[in-house]
Specification:
Blueprint (H helix, E strand, L loop, with lengths): L8 E5 L2 E14 L3 H10 L7 E4 L16 H4 L9 E2 L12 E2 L21 H9 L7 H11 E3 L13 E3 L7 H12 L15 E4 L4 E2 L2 E2 L2 H9 L5 E4 L3 E8 L2 E9 L2 E13 L2 H11 L2 E2 L1 H7 L5 E2 L11 E3 L2 E3 L6 H5 L2 H14 L11 E5 L10 E6 L15 E8 L7 E3 L10 E3 L6 H18 L10 E4 L7 H11 E3 L31 E3 L14 H21 L1
Parallel strand pairs: 2-3, 2-14, 3-11, 6-7, 14-26, 15-16
Antiparallel strand pairs: 1-2, 4-5, 8-19, 9-10, 12-13, 13-14, 17-21, 17-25, 18-21, 18-24, 19-20, 20-21, 22-23
Helix pairs in contact: 1-6, 1-13, 4-13, 11-12
Cofactor: FAD
Keywords: FAD, Flavoprotein
InterPro entries: FAD/NAD-bd_sf, GMC_OxRdtase, GMC_OxRdtase_N, GMC_OxRtase_C
Length: 555
């Protein structure tokens, strides 16, 4: 069993003395999407003592469970870290909100609930980088192992796992028409995005169970907390990994003005995400040596790739006024409609309150230059200026479109030596000519779909960016004005081979140069996947847990 915290005082550090918290086989930092999977798998053996440390709180708020609650959770300090980017030159100097979940389940508790694996070519690309064991045929069994799909099982869908996947419980006439319009311009209708080639249009499958959000905490962590060998601590701030003789031996964390040290006899596993994990590596002395010196952090291992290689899907949000059709804007603005929605949800567990932020998905190519789909639409029967703000008062749809494989690269770095200080987040959006070209072509394609005959009866009128933008230069400027994150940061502690000087991790997710320390989350991706990144991150945790246990068995 996991030991209770001891009140014995340990040797301190520059911030003062530390209280011994106990010894564990594994310490997992972060109870987000990856951390919940790790907690479940690493604690399955009752002989293994597992400690999970989470900076957020429990998911004991109704809007963590009603799907439409993302409207209230994003931009709320109760549930969101409220990060901000640096001013983005490629977006006209704008500073963006950068939502990250601050609760058990992490971003899976506030995200779009979209179940998406990406393309087979994504993972085969990782394998071609020399990362053996990460090709599509290698990772598909891990996706299947954790899945509990409502549809009949087949070679691409599985039932019986913890990660529930269902079909949406609401439909909108305007989205059916948009899908038909996409078919009229040559984009085929498909019934499943998760078979390795996601090109086409379909309704997104969602991580819900009978109309309720199914977060990683609900699926993996909460059931495992019944195990006496698994301990979860919330509302704690991990300050650093303790490194002794080139080995991770524990972590220092604080809560309520008191500071603790927990010892790890096995491994320390960082699962704090693409923003949190590189910051914690740097605060622990792992990173670019000159940068660490500037922070006043003792260098434990020079690793120049820490915090670099940030990749994210920039979504452009073209908005169209429509007429003669229902949208959520209009429904939500009417008191009796809101009452009907609430009653429908309470009695039937369907209707608009079960909505993911996006219902209709389209994967296609922005131009013939690409071998596989390189852009993704999230089409929504609503419009608003930004998540966390009010819906517009007029009937409208949003045809959000994102470049799936951006060539722009950004960074995440510690701002100071204090863990509580938000890091410097610089996605560096639209910094390459290719990304600007894809953005312009994406807006043009959106206009072609909207102008197709299937949409004509709704008289769509471009509200943003506005029909006056026509040339490549004008459309790139329009993209800069309406672009924002779609919340998919990855790559900031990437895995790679021995010949890659920027690789922070090896192919088994181990931190190079430090023993018994791994990073198992989205920051480990060498290249972003072609679609929503939550389930790929959880797949990496499923595979990473297996690696951790296999390596322990060999010791």
């Amino acid at each position: 069993m996991a030991q209770q915290p001891s009140r014995r005082q340990a040797d301190g550090d520059r911030h003062g003395r530390l209280t011994e918290f106990g010894r564990f086989d594994y310490i997992v930092v972060g109870a987000g999407s990856a951390g919940c999977v790790l907690a479940n798998r690493l604690s399955a053996d009752p002989r293994r003592r597992v400690l999970v440390l989470e900076a957020g709180g429990r998911d004991n708020w109704i809007w963590f469970h009603i799907p439409v609650g993302y409207l209230f959770a994003i931009g709320n300090p109760r549930s969101d870290w409220m990060f901000k980017t640096e001013a983005q030159a490629g977006l006209g100097g704008r500073i963006l909100a950068y939502p990250r979940g601050k609760v058990i389940g992490g971003s899976s508790a506030i995200n779009a609930m979209i179940y998406m694996r990406g393309q087979a070519a994504d993972y085969d690309g990782w394998r071609q980088l020399g990362l053996l064991g990460w090709g599509w045929t290698d990772v598909l069994p891990y996706f299947l192992r954790m899945q509990d799909h409502a549809a009949p099982a087949n070679e691409f869908q599985h039932a019986g796992g913890e990660w529930r996947v269902e079909h949406p419980r609401v439909r909108w006439d305007v989205l059916d028409a948009f899908r038909e319009a996409a078919a009229q311009v040559g984009i085929p209708k498909v019934d499943d995005f998760n078979r390795g080639d996601n090109e086409g249009s379909s309704y997104f499958q969602v991580n819900q169970k009978r109309g309720r959000r199914w977060s990683a905490a609900r699926g993996f962590l909460v059931p495992a907390l019944k195990r006496p060998n698994l301990r979860l601590e919330t509302q704690v701030m991990v300050e650093r990994v303790v490194i002794d003789g080139g080995r991770a031996t524990g972590v220092v964390f604080s809560r309520g003005g008191e500071r603790f040290i927990a010892q790890a006899d096995g491994e320390v596993v960082l699962a704090a995400g693409a923003v949190g994990s590189p910051q914690l590596l740097e605060l622990s002395g792992i990173g670019q040596a000159e940068r660490l010196a500037g922070l006043g952090v003792e260098v434990r291992h020079h690793s120049p790739g820490v915090g670099e290689n940030l990749q994210d899907h920039l979504q452009l949000r073209p908005t169209y006024r429509v007429a003669g059709v229902r949208t959520l804007n209009v429904d939500y603005g009417k008191l009796h409609r809101r009452a009907q929605m609430a009653l429908q949800y309470a009695l039937l567990r369907n209707g608009p309150l079960t909505m993911a932020p996006s219902q209709l998905g389209i994967f296609t190519r922005s131009s013939p230059d690409y071998a596989t789909a390189n852009i993704q639409f999230h089409v929504q029967p609503l419009s608003l200026d930004a998540f966390g703000e009010a819906l517009h008062s007029f009937a409208a749809i949003t045809a959000s479109v994102a470049n799936l494989r951006p060539t722009s690269r950004g960074s995440v770095h510690a701002r100071s030596a204090e863990a509580a200080e938000p890091p410097v987040i610089d996605p560096n959006y639209l910094s390459t000519e290719e990304d600007r070209r894809v953005a312009a072509d994406s807006i043009r394609l959106t206009r072609r779909i909207t102008a197709a005959p299937a949409m004509a009866r709704f008289r769509p009128e471009e509200y943003k960016p506005g029909a006056g933008f026509q040339s490549d230069e004008e459309l790139a400027a329009a993209a800069a004005a309406i672009g924002t994150t779609i919340f998919h940061p990855v790559g900031t502690a990437k895995m790679g081979t021995d010949t890659d000087p920027a690789a922070v991790l090896d192919g088994r997710l181990r931190v190079r140069g430090i023993d018994r320390l791994r990073v198992v989350d989205a920051s480990a991706m060498p290249a972003i996947t072609s679609g929503n990144t939550n389930s790929p991150t959880m797949m990496m945790a499923e595979k990473g847990a297996e690696m951790i246990l296999a390596d322990a068995a060999r010791r």
